[in-house]
Amino acid sequence: MKSLFYILALLAVGGAGYLGFEAKKKYEGRIVKRDDLIKQNNRLSDSISEKKVEKKDQNAAKTVALTEQADNEAKLRNAVAKKGELARTLDDLRGQLALVKKKEEDLDAALTAIRNLFPDIPEPIEDNVEAKFDSLVETQKKLENKKDELTGIKESLEKKITELKTEMARVRGKIAESVARVSLNTFEGTITEVVHEYGFVKIGAGSKSGLEPGLKLLVVRGGSLIGKVQVEKVEAGGTIANILPKTFKGGTQVLAGDKVILEEVNTK
Q1: Domain harbouring 72, CATH code
Q2: CB-based burial of residue 70 (10 Å sphere; 0-12 exposed, 13-18 middle, 19+ buried)?
Q3: d(CA 254, CA 200)
Q4: In tens digits, what is the pLDDT along the chain, a chain of 268 residues?
Q5: How far apart are CA 235 and CA 257, in angstroms?
Q6: Is residue 162 domain-shared with residue 90, that is, in the same domain?
Q7: How many whole angstroms separate alpha carbon 230 and alpha carbon 42?
Q8: Number of separate helices (H) and strands (E) present in the chain
Q9: Backbone angles phi, psi at 263, to 5 degrees
Q10: DSSP symbol at 247
Q11: Which domain holds residue 129?
Q12: Which uninterrupted H or E stretch holds 139?
């Protein structure tokens, strides 16, 4: 009788040890899954922080480009204004030159008449008139050269503004790409329907979410990773994803309401 009790006691101790060992294995498995999910979330947070810094730098570059464009446009307006002033000055000088020529002609006619009346009068006056005429011609040439110089400055500034506009368009494109990448890296969707018979789920996120066929998503429930699905088709109103059965352990099944996030973070 004592032997029977002794055997039963050994069996009870062995059974308890076996059950405790199995419970420990399950607990350790959950700890590993939890740690993996924490690492994935940390990598996602680091990537988002990097993209925010990149977006900030690109916004700063955009601000510098806008400032340079405003400065160049102001310089161009000043150059155009100076060009207009020089053109008006040149027109005035041309008018004055025409008046001088007319007065010179009148003076020549008067001098001729005086010489005819008084042949002995000396002729020093013509030198002064010619010197003044030469001075006006030289001033006109300088103004025309200045006009050509300002025209060159204007063309150079217009070229610079065109280059700045091109650079701004490139920066805007880079910013748009960065925003799209950051938006995709922070993606989180909800499974709205599960069709176990055909092995797929529907996700309440469509083409605007940035999802693409072939992407693998982690299925999360209560903060824990339970399995994976792979995007099959993306439509305007939602996404179809195939269930990857081997990734679901211990008979766990995906359910409507489970969350999905990206398996791999886009760092390009």
Answers
A1: 1.10.287
A2: exposed
A3: 10
A4: 667 666 776 676 666 666 666 767 777 777 887 877 778 767 766 766 776 777 787 777 778 778 878 877 887 687 677 777 767 877 877 888 788 788 778 877 877 877 777 676 555 545 565 676 777 778 888 888 888 888 888 888 888 888 878 887 886 766 555 445 444 557 899 999 999 999 999 999 998 888 999 999 999 999 899 999 999 999 999 999 999 999 998 889 999 999 999 988 655 5
A5: 20
A6: yes
A7: 22
A8: 2, 6
A9: -75, -40
A10: G
A11: 1-186
A12: helix 125-185
Q: Are both 193 and 137 inside the same structural domain?
A: no
Q: How far apart are CA 181 and CA 41, in angstroms?
A: 17
Across the chain, where does the E strand assignment appear?
A: 188-195, 200-203, 216-221, 224-234, 239-244, 259-262
Nearest CA-CA partner of 240 in 179, 197, 191: 191
Report the distance separating Cα 135 and Cα 93, nearest Å: 11
* Residues in Cβ contact with 10 at an 8 Å cutoff, skipping those fewer than 6 apart: none
Q: Is residue 268 part of a domain?
A: no
The token pair that represents 63 in the structure block: 């601000």
Same domain, 138 and 45: yes
Nearest one of 170, 42, 43, 147 to 85, comparing CA atoms: 147
Nearest residue to 154 (alpha-carbon basis) of 72, 79, 81: 79
Same domain, 100 and 40: yes
β 239-244/200-203 pair status: antiparallel
- Considering the domain architecture, whether residues 82 and 200 belong to the same structural domain is answered as no
CATH number at residue 250: 2.40.10.340
Nearest to 33 by CA among 253, 255, 250, 254: 250
Q: What is the pTM of this model?
A: 0.36
Give the residue among 22, 134, 16, 157 at the shortest CA–CA distance from 81.
157
End residue of a domain, out of 165, 186, 207: 186
